[in-house]
Specification:
Number of helices: 5
Bound molecules: iron/sulfur cluster
Radius of gyration: 14 Å
Strand order of the largest sheet: 2-1-5-8
Order of helices and strands: EHEHEEHEEEHEH
Helix content: 25-40%
Distance between the termini: 11 Å
Length: 148
């Protein structure tokens, strides 16, 4: 049995900062469900942040909320909690939402809240990388399905 850690918002949970979701199309979810047992995580909620919440972005080594409050600790806690799930299920793959300061696997917003993307990883994607868990985003699902 193969386990896939997946961002809860991709599964349709309303856990996004603005209370919205990033639900994948049903046919894509069906394909993922066939290939994996899906384990949903929302690192920001798991780190104790409420929903809705103010958006946050990575700035250097910190995660800063739009009102300039430092939420690095909450993001780090969420990453550890999500990693604990991945370890519990011995998951080798994760499908995480692109661009998120937690989940983004290739690019993130630059910390200026101007919509500017830069190369970099969210806190959870980075943590997963360290432990050899391969992280895909929602534009890379075909590559992910090619792994099974
Ligand atoms: Fe989705 Fe990840 Fe943001 Fe939670 S932390 S809402 S799972 S992108």
């Amino acid at each position: 049995m193969k386990y896939l850690i997946i961002s809860s918002c991709l599964l349709g949970a309303n856990c996004r900062y603005d209370g919205g979701t990033n639900a994948l199309a049903e046919d894509i979810l069906a394909q993922l469900n066939k290939a994996f047992v899906l384990i949903p995580v929302c690192p920001e909620q798991m780190g104790g942040l409420s929903t809705p919440r103010l958006p946050a972005e990575i700035r250097g080594k910190k995660v800063i909320r739009k009102d300039e409050v430092d939420v690095t600790k909450e993001f780090q806690l969420g990453s550890r909690e999500a990693l604990a799930f991945a370890k519990r299920y011995k998951a080798r793959y994760a499908l995480l939402k692109a661009y998120s300061p937690s989940c983004g696997n290739e690019t993130v917003y630059d910390g200026s809240f101007s919509g500017t993307l830069i190369e970099g990883k969210g806190t959870t994607a980075k943590e997963f990388d360290k432990f050899g868990i391969k992280v895909y985003n929602e534009t890379q699902i075909n590559d992910l399905l090619g792994e099974v």
